[in-house]
Amino acid sequence: MKMVPADASRYELRVRGPNITPGYWKQPELTAAAFDDEGFYKMGDAGRFADPVDPSQGIEFAGRLAEDFKLTSATWVHVGALRVRGIAAMPSIAQDIVIAGHDRDEIAFLIFPKAGTDIRNPDVREDVRRGMAALREEGGGCSTYATRAILLEEPPVIDAGEITDKGYINQRAVLERRAELVKKLYAEPGEPVDEAVIWIDNDYPT
Questions:
Q1: How far is CA 199 from the centre of its chain?
Q2: pTM higher than 0.90 for the full model?
């Protein structure tokens, strides 16, 4: 395994060996993009040492680099880390979270609620709002919290590719399939605000 610095706290993980495919069949351009100059396969996963001072403690998964994106401010959003923090901020509600905001000014959450959650209950919506506010209060800038969210009525659909073979949420597939909901999350000033959208501090656009 090779660990290539990806940012201040994470490494891109690359692997090579007899158990790793040597490339794409008769597709040299794809092969060249997927492997580095030393023949290591670029997995697209990020990792970090479980103990920075003792590498023998192993490596932790730190998100999919392919899922990360930039806001209009050119600030990187680390999707995997924010997803985990978002779920932790609203543990009684969020089963999983999809992060939106590519080429936008601010981040939005599409929240898959836990079974039995009444997504129209004002108390549930207020818990989501408090969770977003808590993330903002932790500090770290606009790439570390969402300003708006929506609770999804439909669970992730396997046949639509919204869940990977490994059982993880496919962020890109969800965002593409639910593009109309993403539009609702990013109402422009002067446009009607969908009542399903939860805004941090009720700070609706005017």
A1: 19
A2: no
